[in-house]
Amino acid sequence: MAPSGRCLYSAVMTPEAQRRLHFARALRNNPTPAEEMLWRALSGVRPRFTRQLRLGPFVADFACRRARLIVEADGSHHAESPTDEGRSDALEAGGWRVIRFWNSDITDNLDGVVEAIVAAVAARIPPDEEIRFIASRAGSERRPRGRRRQGPPPAPPASAGGEA
Asked: Which CATH code fits 31-133?
């Protein structure tokens, strides 16, 4: 971020690209309860997933770039949506695989949804790569960022001039 708080690239972004960027940020900052649950489960999966990834004119709820897999968490307003079908077709034409889960499936059967997602990732990465789950950092103390020194400041260097 620039000191002004604006994105460094905003000066070279088209107004439409800036609009999509702000839209993706708004989605990332205001997830649905189902998206939040799914993110907590997927954030520990390796290869990594990302949230609200911008792909051309689209924003994917979750994406694994390594497996080129998009996971959509859909509410009932997406039922048999021709817009969603066209969007999926365009993303799949770009080499992505799109899988969708209803919000109710995520809230009622999170383990089953994660299992299906992991199987889809496994099918799209090389056989010698493994899928790992890393431990959550929840409840652990975070280390401070930067170079903060513990204890008293270091003593000044001894002068080499031989003052008397």
From this structure: 3.40.960.10
Strand order through the sheet with 97-102: 50-55, 58-64, 69-74, 97-102
Listed by start position, the domains of the chain span 1-30, 31-133
Q: What is the 3-state secondary structure (H, E, C) of 103-117?
A: HHHHHHCHHHHHHHH
Beta-carbon neighbour count of residue 18 at 10 Å? Answer: 14
pTM: 0.69
Report how far Cα 80 is from the mean position of its chain's Cα atoms: 26
Cα–Cα distance list, 157 to 57, 90, 154 (Å): 59, 65, 9
Task: Report d(CA 44, CA 53) in Å as an integer.
Answer: 17
> pLDDT-based confidence at 68, cuts 50/70/90?
very high
Averaged pLDDT, 68-74: 95
Task: Provide the token pair at 61.
Answer: 């709820």
Quote the pLDDT of residue 83.
85
Whether residue 38 contacts residue 113, with contact meaning beta carbons closer than 8 Å, is answered with yes
Q: How far apart are CA 6 and CA 18, in angstroms?
A: 11
Q: Tens of pLDDT along 78-97?
A: 556 778 889 999 999 999 99
